[in-house]
Design brief:
Layout: H1 10-35, E1 38-41, E2 46-49, E3 51-55, E4 63-66, E5 69-70, E6 77-82, E7 85-92, E8 99-105, E9 110-113, E10 133-139, E11 145-153, E12 156-163, E13 168-176, E14 181-184, E15 190-195, E16 203-209, E17 212-221, E18 229-233, E19 240-245, E20 248-252, E21 257-262, E22 267-270, E23 276-280, E24 285-288, E25 291-294, E26 299-306, E27 309-314, E28 317-322, E29 330-332, E30 336-340, E31 345-349, E32 353-357, E33 363-368, E34 375-378, E35 385-389, E36 392-397, E37 402-407
Parallel strand pairs: 3-9
Antiparallel strand pairs: 1-2, 3-6, 4-5, 4-7, 7-8, 10-11, 11-12, 12-13, 14-15, 15-16, 16-17, 18-19, 19-20, 20-21, 22-23, 23-24, 24-25, 26-27, 27-28, 28-29, 30-31, 31-32, 32-33, 34-35, 35-36, 36-37
């Protein structure tokens, strides 16, 4: 049987077979490299292994887009085989402020977006509309409680305790003529009310825990706290308060009143062993009994003693001094400082910088800004913080270097944050 004529002669077939073999050995490695995560990077003109993007944020119903492409996966999720480079990630949900950030995915690395919760869009809600004029406010360290004084009519003052989570209001005091003084400890739920009864020469000083109102302790003092120095002292159980009156240091606790002795200098503090330390401005010495430590800076206030380390404000900023090692003190550009309850940390700030002082007493710069900073306080349990500048409230995330304005043009008398309920 004769075969039809064909152009695929033997040499052509051999050449075609050789071409297919070469093509196989050329394409196969490319396919294999692609499937195991290698990509060509046009910017560097190199072949690089891919990376992974991991997203785990709240609320988990939020929509995630990457470079304007919506990702149809439920949070949490991972995107594998991402070519190394910069990606614009946006996370959004109706009723919440959107989050947007350029994230870098690196070869053979996983880039995480986590420890992040979108902020709910909300307007302030007015409370206590029938309470008269609120003339003084003090907020507990975590925003759980609010202590405030209202004046319903001239010369009549009422003090109330408000619990935010339960939306409950407890009347604590009604007095006349002399405006009460109220204050919460920066460390826990201990607070005080100072007031004067009609016809009495002395002032009454009530020390109590907002969670144990029945256990309050009342003391009589000769002078108002407007006339004397006082400071809160952190204790392992509950805060204590120490007065300096006529050069006499007196410690008040929920159980008793302790006379600590005479003071020589205006600047003083109480360490963890209940020993008083004073600072002599003339000699720049820190003094406790026969112990003396010479410093290079002028201390303006002693804030805390923690793990044998003193934290104080000075004429050059915040001082961190290890009293056991007696090494050169660390100075950071921050005139104001606030403890982060339960975390063993402090947050400190100046007009242009925000710092964190960790449990190891080492300072870390969180932010530097051109806006004048009026106040800073911790915002969430994820490390975010609130800053106030010229009536504008911002929440910033130091991990991702992002910030969100949540309120503008506000006249702020006092502010507190409940980190658990995420309410200001």
């Amino acid at each position: 049987m004769p075969y039809p004529d064909t152009i695929l002669t033997r040499p052509i077939r051999l050449a075609l077979m050789g071409f297919l073999i070469i093509l196989f050995f050329t394409i196969s490695p490319i396919i294999i490299l692609y499937t195991i995560g290698y990509r060509y990077d046009g910017a560097s003109k190199e072949i690089k292994q891919t990376g992974v993007l991991s997203v785990n944020v709240l609320p988990d119903e939020a929509k995630v887009t990457i470079n304007s492409l919506e990702i149809n996966k439920k949070i949490p999720f991972e995107l594998t085989n991402r070519a190394p480079g910069m990606y614009l990630v946006k996370i959004e949900k109706p009723g919440f402020y959107s989050w947007e950030k350029e994230m870098i995915i690196e070869s053979k690395q996983t880039t995480y977006i986590r420890n992040l919760t979108l902020l709910k869009q909300a307007l302030p809600i007015k409370l206590f509309q029938n309470m008269g004029e609120i003339i003084d406010v003090s907020v507990s360290h975590d925003g759980k409680y609010l202590l405030f004084t209202a004046q319903d009519e001239p010369g009549i003052f009422e003090v109330f305790l408000y619990e935010a989570k339960k939306d409950s209001l407890t009347p604590l005091l009604r007095t006349q003529k002399t405006k009460p003084i109220i204050d919460f400890s920066p460390f826990d739920y201990t607070a005080f009310i100072e007031y004067k009864k009609l016809g009495s020469n002395n002032f009454l000083f009530e020390l109590f825990n907002a969670e144990k109102l029945s256990e309050k302790q009342t003391y009589s003092i000769a002078e108002s706290l407007n006339e004397i120095d006082y400071k809160w002292i952190q204790n392992k159980e509950e805060s204590e308060i120490i007065f300096s009156q006529n050069r006499v240091a007196t410690l008040f606790t929920k159980d008793k009143k302790i006379r600590h002795g005479l003071l020589v200098h205006d600047i003083f503090g109480l360490d963890e062993d209940q020993k008083i330390w004073e600072f002599d401005k003339k000699t720049k010495k820190l003094i406790s009994g026969e112990k003396e430590i010479e410093l290079q800076y002028i201390i303006t206030d002693i804030l805390s003693f923690k793990n044998d380390t003193m934290i104080a404000t000075t004429d050059h900023g915040t001082l961190i001094f290890d009293m056991l090692q007696n090494q050169e003190p660390k100075i950071i550009n921050a005139e104001h400082i606030l403890p982060k309850k339960g975390e063993g940390q402090f947050i400190a700030w100046s007009e242009t910088e925000i710092w964190i002082i960790g449990e190891d007493n080492l300072p870390k710069l969180l932010n530097r800004t051109s806006d004048k900073i009026d106040r800073v306080l911790p915002a969430t349990e994820l490390g975010e913080y609130i800053s106030i500048s010229n009536g504008t409230i911002k929440i910033s995330d130091p991990e991702y270097y992002t910030e969100q304005i949540i309120l503008e043009n506000a006249e702020i008398m006092e502010i507190g944050v409940n980190k658990k309920t995420r309410k200001i």
